[in-house]
Specification:
heterodimer, A: mainly alpha, 3 domains, 73% helix, 0% strand, B: mainly alpha, MetI-like fold, two-stranded antiparallel sheet, 15 helices
Chain lengths: 281, 314
């Protein structure tokens, strides 16, 4: 069932395909579209039971309301405070660990590498109590850096796997040649390998940004107040206050989804290259 | 690269032995910061959680800052054996694992459907991938709206078909399936993108050859295409298993484990026990986490074993 290129089929089939595509997409994104429409529906429509009919108007005031009457703006800023340092931290650390594991053939190499990979798959719950306790002890509970430090450490596992495989695929002769010339190891890393890593850095940055922006579990475990809670946890607590006010819930959801979606569309190529790592030989 | 040549010229030639030493120490210097962070935040907490699971601890320290836990041996684990909530969670985790695997065939068919070169197909692929990019919190809220009693689309649909609406999130027998369906939405998108990348790399000459031999339809898929998609399938299975076992966000957002605890999964029950309103039973929570960890270890070892084989074959 490997499809022939549709251009080889009869015109009838081609027509069918060109209709099936948008229909399938519409069905696929139906829940999302519904929420997007609800976010612009006036509250009075919902009160009258007009959930899916023609809206009586476009209610931008739903968005204005959540920005002025709820701390959602603050939550989004908090998310950035956690996400951006994590991206920088995890990418920098894994550039070094990936380099070390890809270039040097020391004895513990494969062991260290597998440890990073395995740690990456561990269920969060086995880390929860000790990490929370440690963060409390260090006075970093309910701060952006307490959350970011954990994320940096955890994401380093996945990023190391990625960086190591990327550097392994570079031509090793480059490094050999530099060594023959007597270039120090640090300079090989800085001047030869690093400039070639740009695509990997871009791919990992968008991926880590999305993962961390969307993180909910650690946000609930390590933060609690308006001053430091990221948008995911914030949205969850707002949802508790807005019981069944779906126009507000919808507007909040759309806002929370926007940054990663924008990131994805801007950096699509890198995003997919990062996610599908290993899907082809 | 101009920089590189500059430094090559500027760097003095070190003596051979010095350079050899440098090459022995360098990897550890490069590893140090990352390894330190990983050890502190990932490796050591695993050890701590395992040891904590043999204690009874409410998460507090006494005035002198000493740990107040009490060693109780295997008692937490014995209690798990007779805890009905734990049993429900375990069963639900199993449901998640089995049903999440549906993401593989559905994702595969979606990718085959989209694997064409017509105008605008790139945009279509991106839009189909959309659900994976948004947060599970948002996915959970979207589906809660979709399932909402009285006006939710799903409710109306069931009302239209059977004459009686189903409020799936309020039904103890169906609630887990409702949440799993919500989780499948982004997971299918992820699997789809993995297979699309895989299909891009299927050798066209093999397809042609198989076609000349009369391979068609399911046979073509099973004997010619799927074997070439093996790496993609492998990654898809791994990420789907992890996704199924990490099902905390959706359960927490959509039902908080309810109604009557019927949609709990291990990851959520653990959180409830350790930090939730039920109480601060850190030791008991740790024991639940250890069980979850053990289940995950089965899959992690499989993954590592395969990587080990690939690495040593090279």
């Amino acid at each position: 069932m490997f499809p022939r290129p549709i251009q080889q089929s009869s015109t009838g089939v081609q027509w069918l395909y060109s209709i099936a595509l948008p229909v399938a997409l519409l069905l696929w994104l139906f829940p999302l579209l519904g929420v997007a429409l609800t976010s612009l529906r006036p509250a009075s429509d919902l009160a009258q039971g007009n959930y899916f009919g023609m809206p009586s108007g476009i209610a931008w005031e739903n968005y204005i309301y959540i920005f002025t009457e709820t701390p959602i703006g603050q939550y989004m800023v908090n998310s950035l405070w956690v996400t951006i340092p994590t991206v920088i931290g995890a990418v920098s650390l894994s550039l070094m660990t990936g380099f070390a594991l890809a270039v040097y053939g020391f004895r513990a190499n494969i062991l260290v590498f597998f440890m990073f990979v395995a740690g990456n798959f561990v269920p969060f719950q086995i880390l929860m109590v000790p990490v929370r306790d440690m963060t409390l002890q260090l006075g970093m509970y309910d701060t952006w850096y307490g959350l970011a430090l954990f994320h940096i450490a955890f994401q380093t596992g996945f990023c190391t796997l990625f960086m190591r495989n990327f550097i392994k695929a570079l031509p090793f002769e480059l490094i050999e040649a530099a060594r023959v010339e007597g270039v120090t190891e640090w300079r090989i890393f800085w001047y030869i390998v690093l400039p070639l890593m740009r695509p990997a850095i871009a791919a990992l940055s968008v991926l880590v940004f999305t993962f961390i922006w969307n993180d909910f579990f650690w946000a609930t475990v390590l933060t609690q107040g308006v001053d430091s809670q990221p948008i995911t946890a914030g949205l969850s607590s707002l949802n508790g206050q807005w019981i069944a006010q779906w126009h507000l819930v919808s507007a909040g959801s759309i806002l929370a989804a926007l940054p990663p979606v924008a990131m994805f569309f801007l950096m699509q190529k890198h995003f997919i290259a990062g996610l599908t790592l290993g899907a082809v030989k | 690269m101009a920089n590189a040549t500059d430094t090559v010229a500027a760097a003095p030639m070190p003596r051979a032995s010095g350079r050899w030493n440098q090459r022995k120490i360098a990897p550890w210097l490069f590893l140090a910061p990352g390894l330190f962070m990983f050890a502190v935040y990932v490796l050591w907490p695993i050890v701590q959680s395992i040891s904590l699971s043999f204690y009874d601890w409410n998460g507090l320290y006494n005035r002198d800052g000493e740990f107040t836990g009490r060693f109780i041996g295997l008692q937490n684990y014995r209690e798990l054996g007779s805890d009905p909530a734990f049993e429900i969670s375990l069963w639900n985790n199993l449901k998640w694992l089995v049903l999440y695997m549906l993401a593989l065939p559905i994702g595969l068919f979606l990718s085959i459907f989209l694997n064409q070169t017509v105008r605008g197909i790139r945009l279509y692929k991106s839009l189909f991938f959309f659900p994976f990019v948004i947060s599970q919190v948002v996915v959970g809220l979207i589906f809660a709206w979709f399932y909402a009693p009285n006006f939710g689309l799903f409710y109306l649909l069931t009302e239209w078909i059977t004459g009686d609406g189903t409020a799936i999130l309020a039904d103890p027998d169906l609630v887990t399936y409702g949440i799993i369906a919500a989780g499948l939405w982004p997971q299918i998108a992820y699997v789809m993108i993995l297979y699309l990348t895989g299909l891009n790399n299927v050798a066209p000459d093999q397809i042609e050859a198989a076609r000349l031999d009369g391979a068609k339809g399911w046979k073509m898929l099973w004997y010619v295409v799927l074997p070439q998609l093996r790496p993609a399938t492998f990654i898809a299975v791994i990420v789907t298993v992890i996704g199924a076992l990490r099902s905390f966000d959706l359960v927490s957002i959509m039902t908080s484990g309810g109604p009557f605890g019927s949609s709990r999964v291990l990851s959520f029950y653990m959180y409830e026990m350790a930090l939730g309103e039920i109480g601060l039973r850190m030791g008991y929570g740790a024991a639940i986490a250890v069980v979850l960890f053990a289940i995950m270890m089965i899959f992690i070892s499989g993954f590592i074993w395969k990587m080990w084989r690939d690495e040593t074959q090279r």
